[in-house]
Amino acid sequence: MKLGLVIALILATGATIVAQEDEIQYAPRILSRLDSGGRRKKVKDKLEKLKNKKDKGKSPNKPSKKDSSKSSKSDYKDSMFLVPFSCPRKCIDGAVQPNDTELDNAIKDCDEKNDSQKWNIHYKNEFMKIEATKDWCIGVEEVKTCQGKKAPLSLVSCSDPRSDWYFTGGQLVSALCWSRGKSRLMSVDDECEGSLKLYDKPDRGTIFMFVGKEFVASASMEDEPTLSPTSYPTLSPTLPPTVSEEPTDTD
């Protein structure tokens, strides 16, 4: 019988009970075929032990490796472009020189096909992580960098507190510098060239936007002629008002 593939019961004296842990769902059907004697109790106890053993290793709140993989892929799929408000059509580029991590040539013309301009955004508690490539995020190169007024930023380990930023909705505040007694924000120069830097004053160069690929693609297009409406609103009524004639009084 089919149930024999799931559990083998040798119900003679001194019987040995063998059950597969993944097939415990068949237990009610098996038990229903047994009598109410000692054999039924013995089978029931055995199945209970197997069920408890299986459930003990479960962690209901821990995602499986399959789920974690999907989450990671989703993060990379939803990459954003980091664009400075004061530099129209410019994007922050994460490409660095070999054996170097300093973002000294980070302000480039936007290119929606350029992977080095795509940033993966993660959050750790209240802080934002801006990831260029796996485990490398925008950050403060070292603590003493916070002392400078226009010190260049670098790529640092994403697990390092140096990569923590507080996003105000427009400005990116270095959490590390603040914790060291210095107020520093991510910034670009007015010339819209060169490195991504820390700055000590909140001006237009410290305002950033996170935008998607479609927006960058549309911003990179040549100016298109403005389409004019085919008709214009009429300021005067289309029909003159009707004037009723008052009856003339006659003597």
Break the fold down into its secondary structure elements and pairings.
Elements: E1 7-9, E2 17-19, H1 27-32, H2 38-56, H3 65-77, E3 80-84, E4 90-92, E5 107-109, E6 118-124, E7 127-133, E8 136-139, E9 154-157, E10 165-167, E11 172-174, H4 175-179, E12 185-187, E13 197-199, E14 208-211, H5 213-219
Antiparallel strand pairs: 1-2, 3-6, 3-14, 4-5, 6-7, 7-8, 8-9, 10-11, 12-13
**How would a textbook summarize the main sheet?**
6 strands, antiparallel
User: Mean of residue pLDDT?
Assistant: 75
Across the major sheet, the strand order is 9-8-7-6-3-14
CA(first)-CA(last) distance: 121 Å
Q: What is the 3D shape?
A: flat
Strand content: 15-25%
SS content category: alpha+beta
Could you give the order of the helices and strands?
Answer: EEHHHEEEEEEEEEHEEEH
Cα Rg: 35 Å
Quaternary state reads single chain
Please give the number of β-strands: 14
Query: What percent of the residues sit in helical stretches (DSSP H or I)?
Result: 10-25%
Q: Ranges with pLDDT <50 over ≥5 residues?
A: 1-27, 57-77
Counting DSSP H or I runs of 4 or more residues, the number of helices is 5
What is this structure, in a nutshell?
The chain has five helices and 14 strands. The protein has helices at 27-32, 38-56, 65-77, 175-179, 213-219; strands at residues 7-9, 17-19, 80-84, 90-92, 107-109, 118-124, 127-133, 136-139, 154-157, 165-167, 172-174, 185-187, 197-199, 208-211. It is flat and about 120 Å long.
